[in-house]
Each structure stands twice: as C-alpha cells, then as structure tokens.
Design a protein that fits this description.
The complex is a heterodimer of chains A (about 450) and B (about 350). By secondary structure, chain A is mainly alpha-helical. Helices cover about 70% and strands about 5% of the residues of chain A. Chain A starts with a helix and ends with a helix. Chain B contains 14 helices and four strands. Classes of the chains: A mainly alpha (about 450), B mainly alpha (about 350). At the A-B interface, helix 2, helix 3, helix 13 and helix 14 of A face helix 2, helix 3, helix 4, helix 5 and strand 2 of B.
C-alpha cells in the first residue's frame, strides 16, 4: 500500500465516515423510540414511560451531539479532499446534499433545543411535536444521503457535458435511482435494529442486577419485539438489495462472494481467504450450488467471476468478502436473539434467563458493527469507481499534498479517539445507572434535564 | 429580462454565510469569553444562554458548505483545497467545543474541567481559523483553470493573523452583547465590561485590517480608490457609507453601554458586522475566488441551480420562521440560581 495523498484521503474519508455513521445509526432509531415513548406517556400517563423517555433522552443528546459535529466534517471533506469529484458530480449530488441540510438538518437542530430544554417553556403537546419533528428530521436526512449514495452506485437521469461534468437531466430518475428504495429501507431498518440492540443491552444490564426493575422490563420487551419483527425483515430487504448488486455491479458481487471463475452453480464460500495475486481462494469451506441460489435465485444460474472482469476494474476482494460475512453473521445472530427473547417472553419473561440477558448485553454493539461492515461492503465493493462505471475514485482527489492529508488524518485519529472514549464512557455511565435514576423535570427542580444545571442537580441529589 | 439565477443564488449563499457568522459568532464568542468567568456557576449560566441555540446556529455553516457545493461547485472545489489546513483545524476545534456542551454536564471533576478547557480553546481556535480563512481569501489564491495550484501554506501570512485576531475580537463582542441580553447581576456587569473591551479591540482591528488590506490586495484597494500614494475621491466617496455604517455601529455600542442598555450593544455589534461584510462584498463582487473565478464561472448547471433555488425559496422562509420561534420560546434571561449547586 503506497501512502500517497490519494490513499491517505481514502483512509481519512473511510475513517471519518465509519466513525460518523455510528451516531446516525443510533439517533435515527433512538429519535423514533423517544417519539413512541413520549406518545405512550401522553396517552397512558404511566410514569414508567416518562422515566424511560428522560433516561434515553440524555443518551440521545450525547450521541446526537457527536453525530452533528462529525457530520459537519463530512460536508467539508468533499471539498478539502475530493474537490475534483465534487466539481464533476455537483450537477447531481450538490442539490441532494443541499436538500438534506434544508429539509432535515435545520429541523433536527432547531427542535432538539426544544426537546432538551423546552420542558417548562412549551406545553406537552408542543414538546411531543418537537420530538416527532426531530425523529422526522433524522429520517428525511437518511432519505437524501442514501439517495446520493445510491446514485453513485447506480447513476441514472444524467448526462455528461463536454467538460466531463455530470449534469442531471431527469431529477426524479436521479433522486429515485434504481436501487434507492431498497437501500433506504435497508439503512433505516439497520438503524432501528442497532437501537433496539442497544436498548435491549442496557435493559438486560439493569435486569441482571434487579430482575424486577419496572422500566427495564418494559424496554426489554420493546427491544425484543423490534428484533423479532425487524431482524428477519432486514434479511429480506438485504436480499433484495443483494440481487441489485448481482444485476448491476457484477464485479462487486464476485468480490462479495469470492467468485473467481464464471460458472453455473457457484458454491457459497462460508470461509475463504481470497487472494488477488493467485486469483483464487485459500482455505475454502464451501456449500455447492448455494452461491448461485443466493445471488441469482437459482442454484444452476451462471454468475460472473472476477477473472472475467479486467484487473483494473476489480475491487479489493478480501475486505469486501469478509465485511459482508460479518454483516450477515451478525444479522443472523440478531434474528436468533429476537426469536429467543420472544420465546422466553411467552414463557414468563426474558428476565427469567440470565443467559439470555448476558447474550443481549453482548449483542449491544452488534448493530453498529454490522452497519460499518455493510457500508464497507457497499463502498469498498464499488471501487475502483467513485461513480459506478463513470468516474474512478483516483480521478476525484484534491490537489493537496500527502503531508497535509497525513497531518489531518493523524489529527482526526487523535481527536476522534478522545471524543469517542469520553462519549462512550458517559453513555455507558448513564446506561449503568439505569432508568430508575432518571429525574422528573416536571415535578422536580426548575432546571431542564440535559442542561448543565439540571445535570449538576441530579448528581448532587441523594 | 430573464432572471440571473447565479446572481440570485449568490445573494442567498451570502445571506446564509452572514447568518452563520452572526449566529455562531455569538456562541463561539461565549467560548472565547469562557476563561474570563469568575466562577463555575457563571460558566454554567453562560453555557445555558446558548445551549438551546448552538446546534441550529452551526447548521448555517453546513448550509454554507452544502450550499456552496450545490450552487457554486467551482468555488467549493477551488477554495477548500486551498484552505485545507485551516479548515481541518476549524472542524476539529468545532468538534471539541461542540461535544463539550453535553460532555461538560456528564464529566466529573477532572472531566468537567477538561471539557471546560476544550470548549474555551475549541471556540477560540475555530474562530481564529475562520479568521485565517477570511484573510487567505482576501489575499487571493493561485488558480489555474479554476483549480487551486498554490502551496499548502499559502494562507499563512501576517495578514491572515491580523484577520484571525479581528474575528476573535468580533465574536467576543457579539457574545458579550448576547450575554448582556441573557444574564443579570454580576455576570451581566462582567459582560458589560467585556463588551466595552471587545468593542475597543474591534474598532482598532477594523482600522488596522482595513489599512493592511489596501497593502496586500491592490485590486481591492483600487476599488476603494487607493492608488498606492493617495485616494481617488470619486471612488472612495461612493463606498464611504460602508465604513460610516461601521462607525455608527460602534457608536451604538458605546452609547448603549453608557445608557446601561441590555440590548443595544448587541445590536451595535451586528451593525459593525454588517458593515464589515458589505465592505468585503464591495471589494470582491462578483468574484467567489479572488480574482480568478466569478459567480457565473463557478455556478452549477442550470438544472441544479433551478432545483436548489426552488427549495431555498420555499424552505428557507420556513426555516427562518421556526428558528425565530425557537429563539422566542427561550426568550428572556436565563435561569441562573447559584443556589442549585
């Protein structure tokens, strides 16, 4: 690996993006969860829902803040590190990103203030509306960003000018590019699943200490229900998305599955180490025919292998092969966890099995790992293209030096490490304290939760 | 006459950037003033005075970046690589001060003081980095066929340091004005002192930076009538209302301070910023990267401009509407009872 400015920019973008995606994955799901909790509280007036709301609101505030600041980076990195790409694709991607800011970011950022600090300033109805608008904002934001990314995977509705710039000719076709609907569904479901696993893990942790903890029993059931429904649904949506790859991005598919030869009845490699130098897999453990069945829907179908794709157009194979398997493996584990939890629920409650609770704690971060693995599959698998079949990543870099990018990459690594450690520590501390510790701002002191004074008040409380 | 779409869009982007400077200006400024607070309680109050707003304020920066990409990709692609290092520094500083809002509340003793320091340092460094970018922009950059061809440290000049110091002083002034509106008693009194000092600093820096600009940028100087030896009065007179507006702003601040007004010093600060911004516009319009790229050369394809312009026309008024509503919800002095500790 040669560390020139291009390679360093790729590493920096991959790192800052992988870091950033953790927080939207959490806050998209958490915002909807909070809207449901507040709605249930307004409807039933059960205090448990309010306590759960306040508890998860604090976690939300921390993760949302981390998502905002790491997201600002992304909106400038397109220009600092990929200025040629930005100039060439701005005719299509520019407006999509601008619409994300206009329709989502302002909505989230403005109503978050009301959500965190507005308890005493607006009525319960308006406060609930603010929560719903923040949740809506997170979903609208994923709409635009997945639209932009889907266009880069399967570009449509555009023309190329004599200067080599891509210009939209049909906005509906460009925004709703062929793979967009299933990719949007895949991401939103992933966010909901990641959140359900975190809620489940936090509840399981509390229930391990006290199986009668009321709020955690409720939240545990909500998480199990979510897993039970969404995890299998995600498998279906992921499969639809995978079939798109088979038809539209044969090089990516061949890398995902470690197919080298073009042949009928491709095997499925459960384990393998794809080697680009020898154009073959080492240490293969395979199931005959299954590969063709999964990717093309027919065990006898012929599927293209990497040897029929010019070397210059092949993505890195091992990374894509393994990131895909990590994602799918974790997805299957999530389905298992949902079924297990539901079965325990029928037999008296998930909290009766300490083994299940421990498994749920362990699976807490699984959603985030799967999201990063999935994005790695999608983005590394798209290489060497930045816009599939139209523009190569290598052609998109900025005229900056390796020294500049090297320095910035180091600085990002350092700052992100500090911020991530602190954020994780504070979130884990909150989760460790559990929902029973959540205060009641409407009955108690006059300071809102999440404000410095409010937080100080809680810490000082007996 | 057909609508000159790039011109209209440039006006909107300019407005977005200006709103960013004003809004994030006062909350970055609170970080700049943070080290001068006497007690932890004062710092908590200062933070409470901006906590519900900062996130929305910073979103204008994202609109500045995203909007520039969507409307003037030529400028986006030319400017950002040219200012690579100061922009990365600004982003990192914004990260550290942005997370500090929440982290400060959750940290225990050492954690809290660490994030207090991060909030102060991050805010100050972000402001200074923006000032450096401003200075580097005014100096002009080496472009060839619309792409940056200069070196990694072209921005690093004494002039850029001056503009950095000027912007830090300006943000401190806005913050002091904001804190006078939002606080009472001791802290309000201290904010009054800060406002007076910052206003003096801003007045000095405005003068120094204006004169320095005549030296570093001959093209801009010529627009103001500066020939190198003296002023061409005809040109100067046309633009002289702009610096006069700045002086009027300073007068509003000092008179407001003298009459113990809570609101006028902030208003005066805003007027000073308006004057500075108009001065930049007069020096650079219609260039988005001086002096190699005009708004028409840097503009996106028509289909993209039309789509974004439509969105701006419909959505921006709604955004401004609910932003005003949020400021209205959190109007008045912030609750600052030391007894809660």
């Amino acid at each position: 690996m040669h560390l020139d400015a291009l390679m360093l920019s790729r590493l920096q973008f991959a790192f800052t993006l992988a870091y950033h995606i953790i927080f939207p994955s959490f806050t998209i799901g958490l915002a909807s969860f909070l809207a449901v909790l507040e709605g249930l509280w307004l409807l039933t007036r059960r205090e448990a829902f309010q306590r759960l709301y306040l508890f998860w609101l604090k976690v939300f505030a921390i993760s949302f803040g981390m998502g905002v600041v790491s997201g600002v980076v992304m909106s400038y990195e397109f220009g600092t590190n990929w200025s040629v790409f930005s100039r060439a694709t701005a005719g299509v991607l520019g407006p999509l990103l601008a619409y994300e800011v206009l329709t989502a970011f302002f909505l989230e950022a403005s109503f978050l203030g009301v959500m965190l600090f507005g308890w005493k300033r607006v009525g319960p109805g308006l406060h609930f509306l603010a929560t719903c608008l923040v949740a809506l904002g997170t979903l609208v934001s994923s709409f635009w960003i997945i639209s932009a990314n889907s266009w880069m995977q399967s570009p449509a509705g555009f023309a190329i000018t004599p200067e080599g710039r891509m210009v939209a000719t049909d906005w509906v076709a460009a925004i709703f590019s062929p793979t967009f609907p299933e990719r949007l569904a895949h991401m939103v479901l992933a966010a909901y699943l990641s959140t359900a696993l975190m809620v489940g893990a936090a509840s399981a942790f509390a229930l391990l200490r006290d199986p009668r903890q009321a709020e955690s029993r409720i939240a545990m059931r909500m998480a199990v229900g979510m897993c039970l429904v969404v995890a299998p649904l995600q498998l279906v949506v992921g499969d639809i998305s995978g079939k798109d790859v088979t038809h539209r991005q044969p090089a990516k598919l061949a890398a995902v599955e470690g197919f080298w030869e073009t042949r009928a009845g491709q095997p499925f490699h459960v384990v393998a180490w794809p080697d680009r130098a020898t154009e073959s897999n080492r240490f293969e453990v395979s199931i005959p025919g299954l590969g063709s069945w999964i990717t093309a829907g027919d065990a006898r179908a012929t599927v293209t292998g990497l040897k029929d794709i010019p070397r210059a157009d092949r993505p890195p194979v091992a990374v894509v092969f393994w990131s895909f398997r990590i994602m799918v493996g974790l997805g299957l584990a999530m389905i298992g966890l949902g079924v297990w939890g539901a079965w325990l629920w029928l037999r008296g409650g998930p909290e009766r099995s300490r083994l299940f609770l421990r498994a749920a704690v362990l699976m807490g971060p699984a959603g985030f790992v799967a999201v990063i693995a999935g994005w790695t599959t999608a983005e590394v698998g798209r290489q060497p293209w930045v816009v599939w079949g139209v523009m190569r990543t290598a052609a998109g870099a900025s005229p900056v030096t390796a020294h500049e990018v090297g320095a910035s990459l180091l600085a990002f690594l350092l700052v992100y490490a500090v911020v991530f450690s602190a954020g994780a520590l504070y979130i884990l501390r909150l989760l460790g304290a559990g929902p029973a510790a959540a205060s009641q701002p409407l009955a108690g002191g006059s300071e809102p939760p999440g404000s410095p004074l409010g937080a100080a008040l809680e810490e000082g409380a007996p | 006459m057909t609508l000159d779409l790039p011109l209209v869009c440039a006006a909107v982007i300019a407005l977005a950037v200006f709103l960013y400077v004003l809004l994030d200006g006062f909350d970055l400024g609170v970080g700049i003033l943070f080290p001068f607070a006497r007690t932890p309680a004062e710092r908590d109050t200062m933070l409470n005075a901006i906590a519900p707003f900062w996130d929305g304020n910073e979103t204008w920066l994202v609109l500045g970046g995203g909007g520039l990409l969507a409307l003037f990709p030529g400028a986006y692609a030319a400017l950002l690589p040219a200012f690579y290092l100061p922009i990365v520094v600004m982003l990192l500083a914004l990260i550290l001060r942005g997370v500090a809002f929440e982290f400060r509340a959750h940290g225990r003793r050492r954690g809290k003081s660490f994030w207090t320091a991060c909030f102060a340092a991050g805010s100050t460094i972000a402001a200074a980095a923006q000032g450096v970018v401003l200075g580097a922009f005014v100096q002009g950059l080496k472009l060839k066929d619309g792409a940056f061809v200069g070196g990694a440290f072209d921005w690093a000049t004494p002039y850029a340091l001056l503009t950095a110091a000027g912007l830090v002083a300006g943000y401190a002034l806005l913050a002091a004005g904001w804190l006078m509106i939002k606080t009472r008693d001791d802290l309000h009194g201290r904010a009054r002192t800060w406002a007076r000092l910052a206003a003096v600093a801003v007045a000095v820096m405005l003068g120094v930076v204006s004169l320095a600009t005549l030296l570093v940028n001959p093209v801009a100087a010529a627009r103001w009538g500066w020939t190198g030896r003296g002023f061409e009065l005809v040109r100067l007179v046309r633009l002289v209302p702009i610096p006069l507006l700045g002086l009027a702003g300073l007068a509003v601040i000092f008179v407001g301070l003298g009459r113990r007004s809570h609101v006028w010093p902030f208003v005066g600060g805003v007027i000073v910023f308006v004057s500075g911004y108009l001065g930049l516009a007069a020096s650079f319009f219609p260039y988005v990267a001086p002096y190699g790229l005009t708004i028409w050369q840097a503009a996106n394809a028509d289909s993209a401009l039309r789509l974004v312009a439509m969105g701006l026309a419909v959505i921006l008024p709604v955004i401004i509407g609910y932003t005003v509503w949020v400021y209205w919800v959190f109007r008045g002095k912030v609750a600052a009872d030391a007894g809660y500790h």
